[in-house]
Amino acid sequence: MDLLRKKSVEQLASESTPLKRTMKTFDLTMLGIGAIIGTGIFVLTGKGALTAGPALSVSFLLAAICCGFAGLCYAEFASMAPVSGSAYSYSYLAFGELIAFVIGWDLILEYALQAATVSAGWSGYFNKMLAEFGLHLPVELTAAYGTTPGVTTYFNLPGFVIVLLVTWVLSVGINQTKRVNDVMVLIKLAIIVLFIACTIWYVNPANWKPFSPYGIYTFQPGSTQPMGIVPAASIVFFSFIGFDAVSSSAEETVNPNKTLPRGILYSLAVSTVLYIVMTLIMTGIVKYDQFAQFVEAPVAGVILATGMNWLAFVVNLGALVGMTTVMLVQLYGQSRICYAMSRDGLFPKFFGEVHPKYHTPFKGTWFFGILTALAGGLININTLFELVNIGTLSAFIIVSAGILWMRKTQPDAHRGFRAPGVPSTPICSIIFCLILIAGLNWETWLRFAVWFAIGLAVYFLYSMKRSKLNPNNASESGTQQVES
C-alpha cells in the first residue's frame, strides 16, 4: 500500500484534455481580480476596522504579503505542471497521492464555503437595492434560518438563485464564463475608482489616531476573540482567497507557462493596492469604532457619512457585481479540482465527464453548484468563513513546501517561471501562513479537524482503491509508471 505514490512532471504534462484553451493573460488577471475584490471591500472591512482600527490597512498588507509569497510558489508550479487541479495537482507531483487528496478535499470545502458565504452577503445588498425601489421580498425568504436576531427567517432565496445563475454560466462554456467575468470585473473596478475619487476629499486624518488601538495582538477583557493587526489579517485574508483558483484554469489557458504566473501575480498586485487605498479612505472618513453601526455594509455606511446618497446606489451595484465574480471564480475552481480528482480516479467518473457541446465538466459543475446554493440558502454560514481561511492557509503551506522539495529533488525540471529568492520565498510564505493561522480561534481548528477526518475516511474507503495509480487498475489507466 503506497500512500505516497506520485505523478511525474512528464505524466502531468502529457495528460490530454477535452477542455478548450481560450484564456489569455488579461482573462486570467480579470479572473484573479474577480475572485479577490468583492467581499473583502464590501463586507469584511467593517469587522476588520473594529478588530484593528485604522491599522486595518497594515492587516491587508500583511495578508497580501503572505499571498504574494504563496503566489510566487503557485506561479512556479503552474509553469512546471500546467494542468487543472491547482494545489491538488502540485501536491500529487511533490508529495504523493494521500497529501494530494487531503489538499483537494480541503479545497473543495474552501471554495464551496466561500461561495456560500458570499451568497449571503450578496443577498443582503440585493435586498437593500430592492428596498430603494419600494420592493420587498417576504422577510422569511431573505436569509437562512436564524441568521438575523429577533427576525424569523427560513431561506435565503436571493442567495440561492444567484448561485444557480452563476452555475449555469459556468456550465455552458469557458468562453461565456470569461466574457461575463471580464465585463463584471471592469464594471466593479470602475465603481471602486469612482468611490475613491468622490470620497477621498472627506478624509479626516484625525480619525486615524490612534492608528493601531489594539496593537499587534491582544485580548480585550470579556472577549474570546483576539484583537489587533494579526487577528484582523486572519479575517481579511478571506478577501484574497481566489487567486489560487487562477491556476485551476491551466488546461483552458493559452501558453500557460507564461500566462498563468502573470495572471496570478498581476491580480494580486492590483487588488492589494485597491484594498489598502480603500481601507485608508474608509477609516479616514469614519472613526474605526463607529463601524459597529454598519458592520454588514461598511461601504454604504461610509457613503452616508459623506452625505452623497446618490453614490450609495452605484456602490450597491458594485457590491453585487463584485460578489458575483467572487462566486463565479470559486465555483469555477471547485469544478476544475473535482474534474482533476475524478480523472485520477479519486472521485467518481461523474465529476470528470465533459459535455460534448460546452466542453465543461457539466454534471460536476451542477452537482456542487446546487449543493452550494442550498448551503447558502439554508445554513447560517457567516460564522464559518474562518474555516475557509484555515483551509486555504493549509494549502498555501503545502504548495510552498512543495517548491522547497521540488528544487531539491528535481532541480533540472523545466520551469517556465522560477520563484525568486528560493529557499527564502517559500519559507517566508510558510511562516506568514502559520502566523495567520495562529490568529484563528479554536472552534475553527476543531471544525477543520472534523472535515479532515471525513476526508481521510473517504480516501481509505473509496479513493485509494480506485486511484489510476493503483497497480490493480493498470488496465484502466494504461501503463502509468508510479514514481517511488
TrEMBL record:
PANTHER family found in the cross-reference section: CATIONIC AMINO ACID TRANSPORTER 4, INNER MEMBRANE TRANSPORTER YGJI-RELATED
Protein known as: Amino acid transporter
Record has Lyase as a keyword: no
GO MF entry, a single one: amino acid transmembrane transporter activity
Subcellular location as annotated: Membrane
Major location category of this protein: membrane
Membrane topology field: Multi-pass membrane protein
Keywords, alphabetical: Membrane, Transmembrane, Transmembrane helix, Transport
Membrane spanning stretches: 28-50, 56-75, 87-108, 154-173, 185-203, 223-243, 264-288, 308-333, 364-381, 387-405, 417-438, 444-462
GO terms under cellular component: membrane
Nucleus found in the keyword field: no
